[in-house]
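Worked example 2:
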Amino acid sequence: MSGIIILLELSQRIRDEQRDNLRVLRRRLRDDQNPFEITTDEHFIDLYRFPKALCLELINELMPFMPNSQRRHAVPSHVIILSALRFFATGSFQRSVGQDSLSALSQTSVSRCVQVVATALNNIAHRHIKFPKREDFPALKIKFMEKYQFPGIIGLIDGTHIKISAPKKEIEHVYYCRKGGHSKNVMIICDADYIVLSASARFGGTAHDSYVWRRSRACRALEELYEAGERDFWLLGDSGYPLQPWLMTPISATSCTAEERYNIAHKSTRALVERCIGLLKSRFRCLSKE
């Protein structure tokens, strides 16, 4: 019995030593390799989906929201951010991201990086995703008119399902998607340049597009403008959304040429928001089931 205990203790010491050696190796890799210096501009974009200059701006903006560790060999903040961006870009397994020589992190460390950076991004999201104010409407209308010859449009709206892991059983029914699995129904509003003006990821996959829209800040903002007498602006949405004075949907049963032309123009213009969502998912593969 004592011999077995000795063997177990020896085995544990060997595992501890191997783990410590691996930590030292990873730390040396992180210290010796700087992605901003050893990668080309094209390769850097392939890895992180951002040009180097823009990525540096993002790191500087996120730094105030990064944890201040007192550990002597703590993972540097820029490595945490780049590792999370790498995961967002590839949607690969966290272990695969960590084994990349530019990250050199364990799977648990990558998991913490993703959580920390996602929280930091939530803190700065309001700076970059802004629903337009009344004074911004003319410029938005001009772009839609120039590109699609559709007057009075300030944005396009659509929903997309983002797959998630199965939540707790108590709330699992809220996130079950009609297409199978679990998801969040995310609302996106974009302009004629594919810039996201508003996004809502509050509701699970069982929520209908119209339900997500009616409970969004964008809906309340347009309703308030309409009640204040501002009535020369519209969003375009598909038939899953309600027809409202500030939201135009397709005509289900056309009865004249004018209505058919409206549907054609509506469909070709609204397709832009579908392409916007497609670009978003192709750039950040973590949003795509594939």
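The beta strands are 153-164, 182-190, 196-204, 234-236, 247-248. The radius of gyration is 24 Å.
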